Amino acid sequence: MKMGSAWQRCVDRLDALQDGGKCIDFWLRDDDAVEPSPALDRLLDLTGRFSVPVTLAVIPASTDERLSRSLSSRMHVDVAVHGWSHRNHAPAIEKRQELGAHRPRETVAADLRAGWARLSALYPAALAPLLVPPWNRIDPGLVSELQEIGFEALSVFGPEDGEKCAAFRDTGLQLINTHVDVMDWHGTRGCRPHGDILRDIDRRLDEVENSGGSVGILTHHLVHDESVWEFLSKLFEITTSNPACRWRRITELIDR
């Protein structure tokens, strides 16, 4: 495989970890699944080819049996609850949120119960006890409700020990975040430069070496351009062939 300097630095870093006898957990979260599509098939074919487990954050209000039937033969897929309808309830002056404090807490909790119930029925074996809040934002006041519903873990974006997650620590709810986003949401809305993504992975490797945890990669199959697919293919090829990397199911991370 022909590699540029950024990719070679990634390989060198992983080789150094291997030489030091270290093994880092990676996991993949893909958001906004609702129905079968060519893009989703492409993601699942790619991850299946490299035996990379994937957690699909599914929007309960928008999905049905078509998706569950299409995933029934995909043994490397786990499903997480992605809010209820992925609808923004925040005013225009605030960042978008579905699970914020803009509605009565019992109303939001009822939505999450409905989401849990729907996906439990559609995915009795594949559903993980994980909540992925739309836009990676949630009112900390909902934590007690989450545990009563049956959630054991929460996944947003950023380091688990960062200020953004302070309110969720020491609550009994596990934090298993994503840390590296492949998409340039505020610019091209396509793939970020590969070198920038790899630098984020390198920074996260530093954090994991110092504090533990995993490297969570965040994707959105419906909006991937060819550069994203190229990046993921290279990343999977490099990491699955290096003993310093171990791609984990979200259920394994929760059980750990």
From TrEMBL:
Q: What is this protein called?
A: Polysaccharide deacetylase
